[in-house]
Write a structure and sequence with these properties.
about 240 residues; three-stranded antiparallel sheet; homodimer; about 30% helix
C-alpha cells in the first residue's frame, strides 16, 4: 500500500530487490498511475466538495454524485458525451476518458476518491532518472492508466506518462517488404506497453502496480505522453 | 510469403518446428489477419472494380481512389467520418476502422489491394483446432489487425478473430483490495494480446506474422471477436 509522501522509486527498487530481479538497458518499467496519485496525495474526500449548479445539472444527466461531477469538471477542459451512468470528458492532460480518470476503487474510505497524478510525464521522468541511476542502466518508464474506448468494449491500458523513449514510432516513409512506401504507419509503442502490462496485472492495478517489459523495440526520444493524444482540432470524434 | 490456398496452420507449425519452439497449454497464438486474407485469396485488382456514383462522390470528399472507395463501401455498413485522406467506416464485422481494413501495403502489384478475411472468428477456430491437435494442448488464437483510434494517435493491434478463450474478462461484481465491488471493469484480453504482439512485430505484419504469447491469464469461452465491439446502438461515437 502506497501512502502519501512515499518514495515510489525506492519502493519499486526494493520490490525488485525482494524478488531478486535485475533491470537491464532498454527495459521499460510500467507503473500504475494509481500508486503515483496516492504518493502525491491526490485523494479527495467527497464530503469536502461543494458542487456548482453546472455540476448538479450535469450530475442529473449522468446519474452521478454531483460532488464527483464537480471534481470531473475541475479536472477537464471539455465534456465529450453524457448518458445515464456515463460522463466522458477531455482531461486537462489532453486525453478523453470516463470521469476524468477519477477512481473510487482501491480506496479505503468510500467517500474518498483519487484524482490522476498532476503531471504523469514528470513522474515518468523522475522515476526513470532514479531507477536508471540505481541500476546503472538506461530504462524507459510508462505511467499507465486504463481507459474505455470508442467503438470497442472494455478498458485498455494506455500511457499517460512516458520517459526514456519515443511514445510513437513513426514509420511513415519507410518501406514494406515489397518496397512500397508506408503511408500511414505510426505505432503507439507506449500504449502497446501499457496494454501489454494489463495482461499481467488484470485490473488489480494496486495488487500488482509495476510491470517490467523486456525486449520491446523502443527508439530514443522524450516527446512525453501528450504526443499520443489527438489535439481537439485533429480529433474526429471527441 | 503466404499464397492463396496455403494451409496456414501447417505453415505456422512448420515455422515453430524450424525455430524449435514448442507450444504449451494456455499459449495464445496471435496471427496477422493479412496472411489469412492472402491464403483466402482476398486480394482484388483495382482495375477490375467499377465504382458507383456514390463511391465517386465519396472518393472526392475523401481524396481517395474511387475504386478503393467502392470496395470500402462493399465491405462496410455505415460511413462514420470523411475528411481529405480519411475514410472511417463501420466494417460489416462490426468494428469501426479506416478504409474497412483494406490494405495496399505488402502487396506485390500496386493495383492489388487486400480485403480482410471473410470470417476471422472462423479462421481463429480453424487454426486453434488444427494447431491444438498438432501439439496436443489447448491453445487460444487471436486474429489481429491494427486500427487507428478515436482520441489517440497511432495504429494499435486489435483482435478481429478469437477462439479458445473469452475475449472480454468481465470482472464486474468482483471486489478490489478493500472489498469495494468493482462496478465497471471489463478487460478486453484479446485486444491486450493483439496490442502486446505489436511490440514484437512492429508494423511488419508479414515479416513476422505470428506471435506466441505465454502466461496470459485467459478464461474459457467462445464468444468470438464480435463481442469486443459496441453495437451501433451502444456506441457513443461511431
Amino acid at each position: 500500500m502506497v501512502r502519501e509522501g512515499d518514495d515510489v522509486a525506492k519502493l519499486i527498487c526494493a520490490a525488485l530487490d525482494r524478488e531478486q530481479l535485475d533491470l537491464f538497458a532498454g527495459d521499460v518499467v510500467v507503473v500504475a498511475s494509481k500508486i503515483l496519485a496516492k504518493a502525491e496525495g491526490r485523494s479527495v474526500d467527497l464530503e469536502s466538495v461543494q458542487p456548482s449548479d453546472a455540476a448538479r445539472t450535469l450530475a442529473q444527466d449522468a446519474d452521478k454524485d454531483p460532488r464527483l461531477v464537480q471534481l470531473v469538471l475541475d479536472e477537464s477542459t471539455h465534456v465529450s458525451r453524457v448518458r445515464a451512468g456515463v460522463l466522458l470528458v477531455r482531461h486537462r492532460l489532453g486525453f478523453v476518458s470516463a470521469n476524468a480518470g477519477i477512481d473510487r476503487s482501491n480506496i479505503e474510505n468510500t467517500s474518498q476518491v483519487l484524482l490522476l497524478p498532476t503531471d504523469p510525464d514528470a513522474w515518468a521522468r523522475e522515476l526513470r532518472s532514479k531507477i536508471s541511476s540505481t541500476y546503472g542502466v538506461d530504462l524507459g518508464v510508462v505511467v499507465a492508466d486504463t481507459h474505455g474506448r470508442a467503438f470497442r468494449r472494455g478498458n485498455l491500458g494506455v500511457a499517460i506518462g512516458v520517459s526514456g523513449f519515443e511514445p510513437l514510432a513513426d514509420l511513415r516513409g519507410t518501406q514494406d517488404l515489397f518496397g512500397n512506401v508506408l503511408e500511414a504507419t505510426i505505432v503507439p509503442v507506449a500504449d502497446q506497453l501499457a496494454a501489454a502490462a494489463g495482461l499481467v496485472t488484470g485490473e488489480s492495478a494496486e495488487g500488482l502496480p509495476v510491470v517490467v517489459v523486456r525486449g520491446a523495440l523502443v527508439m530514443p526520444g522524450e516527446a512525453g505522453a501528450t504526443s499520443l493524444v489527438w489535439s481537439p482540432e485533429e480529433d474526429l470524434y471527441a
